[in-house]
Amino acid sequence: MSSSTPHKPTSKQMASNHISSPIFSSSHTPRSQAVLKSLMEDEIADQTFRFNSSKLAQILSPKQLKDGAVPSEGFYGIDQYHCTVDEKAFGNALNELVAKPPSFSSVTRAAEQACYESLAKFLTQIVKACHKALDKHKDNKIPKRPERWYHDLEFVVGTQMMDGIEGAAVLKPDIVGGKGISKSGGHHWWKPLAGQPACQVMLPVEVKNCWRKLVAQAATYARSLFDANPMRVFALILGFNHEKNQLRFLVFHRGGLAASEPCDLTEKDRFEDMARLFLTLATWRTAAEAGFITCGNDTTHLLPVNKHSQQHVRATVEKILFRSLCVRGRMTQVFLLRPESATPAGPETPEQKELRPSVQSVVGLRRSVRLAEKPEPTNTSQEKRKSTLSKVREQVKGERVQTVPSADLKSFTPFNFQCSDGSPILSDLTETVVLKTSWPSIDRRKNETDMFKDCGGHYGVMPHVSSYEVTGEDCEPISNFLFFPNEDEIKDHHWPLFDSPPPKTLDVRTYQQCIFNSCGKALTTAENPRQLTCGLRDCILGWLSVYLCGYLHRDPSLGNVLLAPGENKEGFKIPDVFLEHVSSLPNGPAEEIRQLLVKVQELVVSLGVSTQATAVITDGDLSIPWKTYWDVDRRSAKSGTPEFMSRALLDTPGEYLHSPVDDLESFFWVALWSVLFNKTSGEESGVEGPARQALTKNNKDLGIRQFGYLEGVEQRNQATQRFQAVIQDWWKKVEPLSEQWRREVFIKRPRDADAKYYLPHFHRFALRGVVDVLEVLEKHWKDGEIGWSSWSRP
């Protein structure tokens, strides 16, 4: 079951499948609601489905696996669960509720705001009626009122939120629901200070007379709920069409939207549908039933030591290194954690103070940074901007409300647990570790896990501890699987909300974690020419290590190649498995590949590669094994971070075969960024400004042209002076390689080209490109300037 991927704002014109997108707007002005709603439509796209109240109630219901239930790929269908909403006590409570429904006073169709107060009162009344009905029916499946998650849920008319998301206008939901929220005094927060839970908005309500506009606005609330509590499976919003007096439950999840059919609140015979859904919420007892992932929070995570969950390590969050934000998508987060078994942290060093949420300070860069420390901000960064309400959460100091308190975190049995041979055991580590969490699509759920399992320990690859999927109480992987119809029912349940036809596939995703035992810095922080040169050399060799182990990385970027010590202690080596594979190829290509491998090894020696890498490549989300690359869905999908993607990958309309040539061009743009935006080579001279501006606007041709104009300019900063000739010689290798690929491989491809045709070419061009780069570095290393231990002349 593969996924159709959301169209990101940066990639509409590219029809691309896996393009990294910004967390925040690069503009100094907060993104308008109109723009944000348009982005939400693009993100959710065609993954919008509607269900009758009985089916959605089962999806949201507390549930327990039936005896003998058999999973398919780790997933269980709804018919394999005992659902609380199917219990007799629930049915009796529903009948009582329907017999005496609270009344709703409709308003004139033209008055949206006029219905806010009456609707808020009605929603509060129905919640109270649900609890009252459940109180009368004793059953061990029905929690007692004090034990219910929403035992004190209330709704009030909304006010402007006290906090928000950087880069977006502050929101003002029409109506807000929360636990005892009537006591908040009108001060509403997505994530309030500890001790003020009544101020927290947990169930927003949007009122409009058009479902499309309403859902787009509701998605902005879901985005804020995901921002406040990233460890969510779903975010529930209520939508009310005031012209038709219709209410819907809108359940936003990592793969799209699951909505209820509309219920007219003025029709008594339709009240049962809505009552069933509210009654379902009243049966929630735990945070997990309310949609939260309970193995971690903002301050603490429980990490499994092995696949049998016999032991977990409690780890404290020291820093958030990176956070992406979306409703539908991977929602990647990266934490620096200190396990309880690790050495206690000492006084913070200046270097540690630089560890901030990893948003690049260069305006315009898509934030693909994964495991990198943050360089000092420039004077255009958000630290120097005028304060706005959207930053008030950061300005108001104090501990925040934790939806799942650290004392209540739950251990779990990891699914598809993988670790590399020789990987360190988590419980034995004495330093900090890095935890990366994400929601990969089902067809990519094993990409990163398998890549690090097979490549871990090789030269230039990020040191890997383990990867796995987090599971729920019944040991099933946490996913959004149940929020979709069966594949043969897609057309019946599709809600054509955004003028999209029914999707061919469903965007099923699972919640995954990867643990690494080191943290790196961006190449822009290189402290001298030698460090940058060795970093570029080793991250390219790291990419080659991944390739020779059987994977095409597909996303080299400034955030995915980092200055960090590698795990390998034996230097760069050609894996035996690749040599065996080469022996199976036709004699002609095989001989050329062997010769190129010899050349790579000679250059490794000439460039002084030691037994341990100085830089590593990481982030295998988009990697694909090249042996299984040849189904149409995979090979035609574009992937990467726009600022570093090859020009052909960006500019070619329609389907495109992402090859090693594209990855190797990405390294050129990484090198150019690393030079132009270096933070340690002295004051910015200003003459590099046009080249920097072109790159941040993703105008690559103009950027390299502007960089070429700097040759001989005395005012250049030290990094540009040392690497001007390197970059220009490297560029002379990039274009010919791309043209050779086009003429020798692409134009000559047969109609039914497959792995037998492409693989020898993949290997030849991967090695040719690496040799080209290493030869450029070797030439200038011998000349002396890029081997200096200081930016200025010795």
From TrEMBL:
Signal peptide: none
Protein's name in the database: Fungal-type protein kinase domain-containing protein
Compositional bias per record (Basic and acidic residues), positions renumbered to this chain: 370-400
Source taxon at top rank: Eukaryota
Polar residues: compositionally biased ranges: 1-15
Region (Disordered): 1-28, 338-400
Pfam families in alphabetical order: Pkinase_fungal
Feature: compositional bias, Low complexity: 16-28
All residue ranges annotated as the Fungal-type protein kinase domain in the record: 202-338, 432-674
